[in-house]
Amino acid sequence: MGHDNFCFPVRELSNERVKLVPFDAKLHGPEFFALSSPQPSLYAHIPRGPYTSLSDFTTNFLEAVIDPSPAWMLYAVIDKTRSSRSPTNDPSGALAGTIAYLDSSPEHLLTEIGFVITLPPFQCTHVTSNAVGLLLQYALDSPDQGGLGLRRVQWKANSVNAASRKVAERMGFGFEGVTKWERVFRDGVKKGKVGNGRGVPPGTEEGDLGRDTATFGLSWEEWRDGVRERVRGVMERL
Predict the structure, then answer these.
(1) According to the model, what pLDDT value does residue 132 have?
(2) Where in 73-146 does DSSP place strands (E)?
């Protein structure tokens, strides 16, 4: 899987309530697709998906996007407070969703947190905050603290996705601005995507939508100067 190709060292990340493990197509793929496919709205704000079959998800996302890219690292999110629903899955807890590092750069010492899909039974719980917090800790903690010592982590959200923006703010990211028309959702109407709500330019293919993107950032000195402790508090509270 793609973790063999990732540009930074990969390891399991865990605390008392959540565990992040490299997403395995055979182990996690069937259950994740079965649980997410009835909820296409999970993909409404992001560039990828929804997927029509397990083969579609495996071929056009895992094999086409994750595996070949050294900038992507996809994790399965395991909720250790609940029992696994599948005897073949992780015995330490239930599959709760996915989360990823993307657009990672060892040259510039930065990464982005994205493809955050928390399955409906785990939304509005401790899962998302702890999953994001674990990735932040590993990315921004210094090497002597067990982290990568990166200089920047960013978060990009559909500008109209209030839930995603709220998570970013709760986890200590600072709002840096909105880039208008940053992305085209090809065939977005059919796929259930949420665009920016404005008219599209002349010549746009029928059914395409435009996305404005809100960018949030968190730097190493902000992490050092208080955000690290703030994130720890959020993880313990939620």
Answers:
(1) 98
(2) 73-79, 94-105, 110-118
List the structure tokens of 80.
Answer: 């250790």
Distances (CA, A) of 214 to 13, 47, 143, 176, 179: 27, 14, 30, 8, 6
* Whether pTM exceeds 0.70: yes
List, in order, residues 6 or more apart from 161 with CB less than 8 Å away: 45, 194
Say how far apart CA 29 and CA 10 lie, in whole Å.
19
Please give the angle made by the CA atoms of 29, 44 and 131, to the nearest 5 degrees.
55
Contacts of 120 (CB under 8 A, 6+ apart): 39
The answer to whether the CB of 216 falls within 8 A of the CB of 236 is no
% of the chain residues with pLDDT over 70? 97
Which pLDDT score is estimated for 236?
93
Q: DSSP characters for 132-178?
A: HHHHHHHHHS-GGGTS---SEEEEEEETT-HHHHHHHHHTTPEEEEE
Predicted confidence (pLDDT) per residue in 187-216, tens digit: 999 999 999 999 999 999 999 999 999 999
Q: Which of 98, 111, 109 is nearest to 46 (CA)?
A: 98
State the pLDDT confidence band at 44, using cuts at 50, 70 and 90.
Answer: very high
**For 181-212, what is the HEC assignment?**
EEEEECCHHHHCCCCCCCCCCCCCCCCCEEEE
Confidence band of 88 (pLDDT split at 50, 70, 90): low
Which of 181, 206, 205 has its CA nearest to residue 195? Answer: 181
> What torsion do the CA atoms of 26, 112, 210, 42 make, to the nearest 10 degrees?
40
